[in-house]
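User: My collaborator sent over this chain with a note saying "see what the structure looks like." That's all I know about it. Can you take a look?
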Amino acid sequence: MKMAFLASSRSTCLRRAVGAALVRDNQLISTGYNGSPKNSPHCAETGCLREQQNVPSGEKHELCRGVHAEQNAIIQAAINGSSTRGAVLYCTHQPCSICARLIINAEIKQVFVANAYPDELATRLFQEAGIGMILMNLETGESLRLT
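Assistant: Without extra context I'll predict from the sequence alone. Here is the result:
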């Protein structure tokens, strides 16, 4: 989880810095953070359309120009030829439903999150796919199974 938080420090998102780390067989295979696509202006330059339109958290993800941390971690694994099958994802924030679909199809087996996120569809998709999602309390070390 510390690697996910380290990755989040590179985020270019104006609303929320998110980081992700993919691990398979106790080996880090990729990391990702949320931000603009490669060779595109950062949101600090263009402004945040969701912010400008007062879009609540968890809604209208398609308006964001950024690529989510989980998406970038999966993409980086693919670019570098590392299979995500059976991997574990550590993420600073609970994945949205778009990322949940990618995680399911990437055959990631379990997701650990440090912060909850208001997306009931994502939780339901993980439940249906049999993917465990665990909320970690980093201060106490306790965990809560969400799916």
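A starting point for your reply to your collaborator: Strands lie at 19-24, 27-33, 88-91, 110-113, 132-136, 143-145.
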